[in-house]
Amino acid sequence: MTPGSKAFYRLTKPLVFLLCLLPLSMLSLQAFELADMSLGTNPVEKLLHEFGRWGLKFLLLTLTVTPLRRWTGWNWLLRFRRMLGLYAFFYIVLHFLTYAVLDQGLEFALIIEDVIKRPYITLGMIGFVLLIPLAVTSTRGMMRRLGKRWVKLHRLVYVIAILGAWHFYWQVKLDTLEALVYAMVLAALLAVRLDRLKSLSGFRH
Ligand code: HEM
């Protein structure tokens, strides 16, 4: 079985799929207090934070695929990019639902007020809304139908990742180190792309 072969994908795709579900499985065990686990004293906050972090982690993982493929020559990595992107969307939907249902009790007036009055929520909301068209157009059929427009549309992922990292940084009350680490990883992933763009257009400093 060689990487890139049909047998390889048949085995690894379900494995990666299940691996990406691990955070949700662990949080479910904690939520239902199984296997001696629990979400702690503030379960809603814990869920909100964990889903938000996993959403951002999956966004960054999705953005890692292209540079990693280029450096290693492992073209088969590309076949996992869509799954990672859709998992980012999945965890961000769970993050939003935790906020809207468990934290705000589906009080639309409160949610709208929060989105308008709290800048970090405004950023998160913009990121979330921008992710929806990307998720909807992630199928092969849509890719074919949209052609070059698909590539342009999916460049929005950079804006979404910036909004997500900024939203994280902005809501931290005390220790900003972790949020800064996420922001630095994102900056590196964007810098690699800019560097390539410059070298492709023959631009040199
Ligand atoms: C691209 C979309 C989004 C990403 C990547 C994202 C990510 C994150 C991350 C990483 C955190 C910090 C978790 C921690 O401190 O451990 C967070 C917190 C939070 N997010 Fe999001 N988020 C997004 C969208 C949203 C949306 C749409 C809402 C609500 C409308 C929202 C509401 C919140 C709230 C209320 C917190 C917690 C703030 C606090 O504890 O004071 N987020 N988010």
Helix percent band: over 70%
User: How many strand units?
Assistant: 0
Ligands and ions found:
protoporphyrin IX containing FE
Residue-averaged pLDDT: 95
Using only C-alpha atoms, the radius of gyration works out to 19 Å
What does the main sheet amount to?
Answer: none
Q: Write down the overall geometry.
A: globular
Outline the low-pLDDT stretches. Answer: none
Word description of this protein:
The protein is mainly alpha-helical and 205 residues long. The chain has one domain (6-194). It contains nine helices and no strands. The protein has helices at residues 6-31, 43-72, 81-103, 108-117, 119-136, 140-146, 148-154, 156-171, 177-200. It is globular. It starts with 5 loop residues before the first helix and ends in a 5-residue tail after the last helix. The structure holds protoporphyrin IX containing FE. The site of protoporphyrin IX containing FE has 24 residues, from helix 2, helix 3, helix 5 and helix 8.
Features:
9 helices; 205 residues; binds protoporphyrin IX containing FE; 0% strand; single chain; mainly alpha
Topology:
Layout: H1 6-31, H2 43-72, H3 81-103, H4 108-117, H5 119-136, H6 140-146, H7 148-154, H8 156-171, H9 177-200
The site of protoporphyrin IX containing FE has 24 residues, from helix 2, helix 3, helix 5 and helix 8.
